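User:
I study polymers; will you set down one protein's sequence and backbone structure tokens?

Assistant:
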Amino acid sequence: MNTYIYLREVRFHANHGVMPQERTVGTDFTVDLRVEYPFAAAMKSDNVDDTLNYAQLFNLVKKEMAQPSRLLEHVAGRIAEAVFREFPSSISIDLCITKVNPPMGADCGGAGVEIHLINDKTI
């Protein structure tokens, strides 16, 4: 059985980017995060202690998004490390960070990074 906890299209205003203006003024981002986590016990117990609390997951992402970085790759790596550190029973993560209005002269829905990582400590 595969079970997942997810956050979908969480919006942040953050100061990530290579351009100085991006780090000064900031821009809008969305984050999608799916964490494979064994919550079969919670399905029976109805106890939040038997699962990964998505409010705690949100607070972790919020903390990392608040720390300015030049590259979204760096932000994604920090979020992944924090998830695996704070929730060691996590099996894998799928993470997408999208810059909503990237400064590249294109009319688009956004640009960003997407990663899939496996927590080798759970295998």
Summary: The two ends are 15 Å apart (CA to CA). Strands lie at 4-14, 27-36, 92-99, 111-118.
